[in-house]
Amino acid sequence: MENMNERSRIAELINDHAADARRRKPARKRMSSEERFEQIVDVAVNLIAQKGYYGMSLQDVANEIGISQTAVIHRVKSKQGLLIAVIERHYDKSDAIARYLARFAPGGDREGDRPRIPEALHKVVEQQVQRPQLAKVFEMLNTEAMSPVHPAYSYFAERPARMAAEFRAHEWLLPEGVDGEFVYMLANAALYGLEGRWLANPDGIDFIAEWERYADYLFPSPQWDGCR
Length: 228
What we know:
By secondary structure, the protein is mostly helical. The protein has helices at residues 2-24, 33-55, 58-65, 69-76, 79-92, 96-102, 117-130, 132-144, 153-157, 159-168, 180-200, 207-218.
């Protein structure tokens, strides 16, 4: 009887200790709806870089995170909705040119000055070096979206017109007699081509250094002196 009482007492102690441990264990923080949405978009970016838009599925996203496909659909509605979120969150809202131009707006640290094309494009190159995965996704989507049935077709087809309109909306510092809009679009085309070479061979090409070589030809001295 005494042994049984002792075993019972020990069992109670063990149970009490386990209960205390559970109480002491910090509660796992539940993700907010916005945090989960951001996580889904970030995972989609990585998967698109690996597989392309057509090669990726919502189930792939769910598997990477460890949630159900239904939970993913609840946040993004559809695969097309997820693609739109990727474009809006990672391109339209994190654009180097937009951030650069904002510095010249009222209240900006360069208010009263005029933006310069070479300087602006250098900011783009720096941004892409800092986020190569997103640059790869952009290149991949741009290629896939050549097909009119691709959900991002309109975004990429209309992008040159948006870029030109953005250029015309600002008073740039340019050498006399230079067609700024033409040079701006030409330089962006050259940058995009170089970006593709760099992404295909990131260890063999120094994107920033190679772009500086391009810039020397696109914006030669002495014509562009004072406008860089």
